């Protein structure tokens, strides 16, 4: 039975969590395959708000297995806090969650290095990371010599390996001006405790997922971050350290693309970005503030105000193609209500030349001057609309234009954070939404 991917097509926070929660009802396994505790996915249901970071948003429903694969960098303290937070609200986690023994472990030095290196990006703008040690942990993973995987914590060799790494890390931290060295014994004691707590969840998730796919189970892959933050294909170096676009699914999960037959690209009806790097359509003005206020655009993880701007169809078309997207979910459409006019970027002018190709170098993206098309806005709130046909004519025209520009049908429109504030659109060529909703939503 083929699987589904939910991929953010912008710079993250496209409301992937909300969509994954809705789709979980039609799947057996929900998989996080990249990123780490830098992600913040919000699900709102029945007046309750849930914020998921490392644990797949599918955890809120029963009858689903949630899997954190080896492509994820795992901060065990953060994972345990999240598990305890869910359990304290009545969501069962044990028996429903598996964590890969291949996942690389985030240690305190990664968080320290993240802080130092982010501030040290001299001669320009800082990346503005989430400070969760993501980049340094992925760097050590690829470098291999200073890396520890979750499975290593259960081996006799772990204490000696940890001590050796701490020795090397203390040297480099000292060279960066850190005065207090890391205490290997204290870290060892903490991580031994974390390892004991997580032990029942640790598994070879690649084997589990391949077995599940071959047995006909329906897999749902939950993207983290967004395709423009992809380390290889995003706005490098203002990216995260994993393949957060659709191309990362197979590498991060160990499940080859042949098991995926549906890729849903998630877009906000406008653009946001948190952290550094170019955002061509940014509105650092009253319009940007209007979007920020109405969209409550403050980071889930760091609470930083998100930078806001108009929808960028050049970027979205690029990422929809890159991620192999079949259909689009347009989220936060309600936020645009009350504007007289809405702009959409349809091309860039770079050095006086007009292009619809997304630049491969960040310096060219910095120079991009958006070419806008102006569409009429609509007045009044649409948060209570549940049927596409009942949307204001201008809102329907806006969705249709986005579909045209991005080159994929819009099959979902979201008009509020709640599960119920969602409509499914008939679209030529798109598969109907499976809406069996066979899984029971968790009750708080
Ligand atoms: P994710 O990281 O992609 O899962 O997205 P986040 O949870 O970080 O950010 C999306 C935010 O928008 C959350 O606060 C959601 O509750 C909220 N949200 C989701 N869909 C809608 C919508 O259609 N309208 C509005 N106003 N808010 C929404
Ligand atoms: P979700 O899954 C939005 C951004 C950071 C920073 C850059 C690198 O909630 O959509 P990192 O800590 O990963 O090294 O930071 O990436 N970033 C996100 N922005 N949503 C996210 O996740 C993000 N995860 C990382 O702000 O600009
Ligand atoms: Mg988020």
Helix content: 25-40%
How much beta, percentage-wise?
A: 15-25%
Rg (CA only): 22 Å
Cα distance spanning the termini: 31 Å
Biggest β-sheet description: 10 strands, mixed
Are any ligands bound, and if so which? guanosine-5'-diphosphate, 6-O-phosphoryl inosine monophosphate, magnesium ion
**Count of discrete alpha- or pi-helical segments spanning 4 or more residues:** 12
Rough shape?
Answer: globular
Sum this structure up briefly.
The chain has helices at 16-24, 76-88, 108-119, 134-143, 158-175, 184-198, 205-214, 248-253, 286-295, 313-322, 362-367, 393-406, and strands at 3-8, 29-32, 41-45, 48-52, 65-68, 73-74, 97-100, 104-105, 202-203, 219-222, 260-268, 271-273, 307-309, 311-312, 327-331, 341-350, 353-355, 369-376, 410-414, 422-424. It is an alpha/beta fold.
Characteristic key phrases:
444 residues; alpha/beta; 10-stranded mixed sheet; 4-stranded mixed sheet; 20 strands; 30% helix; binds guanosine-5'-diphosphate; binds 6-O-phosphoryl inosine monophosphate; binds magnesium ion
Write the layout of secondary structure elements.
Layout: E1 3-8, H1 16-24, E2 29-32, E3 41-45, E4 48-52, E5 65-68, E6 73-74, H2 76-88, E7 97-100, E8 104-105, H3 108-119, H4 134-143, H5 158-175, H6 184-198, E9 202-203, H7 205-214, E10 219-222, H8 248-253, E11 260-268, E12 271-273, H9 286-295, E13 307-309, E14 311-312, H10 313-322, E15 327-331, E16 341-350, E17 353-355, H11 362-367, E18 369-376, H12 393-406, E19 410-414, E20 422-424
Helix pairs in contact: 3-4
Bound molecules: guanosine-5'-diphosphate, 6-O-phosphoryl inosine monophosphate (IMO) and magnesium ion.
